[in-house]
Design a protein that fits this description.
Blueprint lengths: L20 E6 L6 H4 L1 H11 L6 E6 L5 H12 L3 E7 L9 H5 L6 H7 L5 E5 L23 E8 L6 E9 L5 H5 L1 E2 L1 E6 L2 H16 L16 E3 L6 E5 L6 H6 L2 E3 L6 E6 L7 H12 L3 E6 L7 H9 L3 E4 L1 E2 L2 E3 L2 E9 L2 E10 L5 H5 L3 E6 L2 H17 L3
Parallel strand pairs: 2-3, 3-4, 7-16, 12-13, 13-14
Antiparallel strand pairs: 1-8, 2-5, 5-6, 6-8, 9-10, 10-19, 11-17, 12-17, 15-16, 17-18, 18-19
Helix pairs in contact: 2-3, 3-5
Length: about 400
Amino acid sequence: MKLYFKIVMFLPLITSYIIADSYALFNNPLGSKVEQKRIIDHIIGLISNTPAKEIISAGLYSFDDKRVAKALLKARKRGVKIQIAIDRFGEHYKENKKRIDKGRYENRVVVNMLKDKIDKLTICGDNRDKSIQSCISDKKNSIQHEKYFLFSKTFHPTTHKEMDNTVLVTSSNMTNTAQYIQWNDAFISYGDKDGWYKPWYDNFQKQLNQNRNSSYFNPKLSSGYFESNRTGYEAYFSPSSKQDIFASLLKKVKGSKDGECSLLLNEAYFTNYRKKVANELIRIKKSGCAVKVLVSKPKMFGKKIRKKLANAGIEYKYLRNKKQYTHHKFILYKGDYDNRKAQNIVWLGSHNLTDDANRLNDEVIVKVAEKHIFYAYKKHFDNCWKVSGS
């Protein structure tokens, strides 16, 4: 008599993602001309290498670099479809009302160069209220602050590798200031059409058509959020009327009982309105994680937040040098996150730690959990920390 035994193995549920082709870029306003212009030169290269019959889409805030505009016009002439959604002025109307009313504003020259010469140019805003400059938000004093390019197909400017369905998200405006005065970053990924490029393109169409929604961020309604099931990349779009998006993301930080844990923040603005984010940083510090904060200037760093962090033993510095200052909007985290062990996470995009960024503006936060991207950003953070001061 033979006995048969069935062996059943219970394995933990593990979600694995395919790593997309991705890389990061950083400029250095204190470096050579090549280092200063690295991000915008790369964008010009991608535009120049886009073949006829392909599509370039862009959501932009501030734009005065004629080189980028000329590259777009050349692409259009060779048969590339060009469509752009851009903030009306490229600067805050509430802060520069007199000058803007006289027609002297950041985006004026480039918008006039592109107007009626590309396939679609949406100059976002509300004609009834100049303070509404956004594409999605319908709130007073809101801006279209996102900075991204989408390429249906292009080729890498130096390696000439084919890059289908490319998404480039950056902190950099298309301006001279972004190159020579500010530190900026860019995250580029390609090859994920259905999980990443297409949702971005769909979101862009909402901006292009100005489908307004003051409560745009609402994941329960599949609004203002998507995740690639191929790469695990996530995108979070403001405005949010009910929650602090960054604070809700940081709530999932669990620290690490078994290994290294750190959180590194590099932000242009960190104002008193974002006390929920500050509270999360303090909680994370108390859990045993190393926490460091870089901000651009004292006037862009809320006094109450500054004092709160200092009292909790969190070290902060200012990344500035005479005229130069940080324009980054990224947070790096190494440790356990949500239900995952030993993660290497980068949050990046256009989202400053201000009330406007969360509640009023069109903004984006991108979450990337790829080791090579994390360490590229960490190397850059470490370099920034070395040249920063108190």
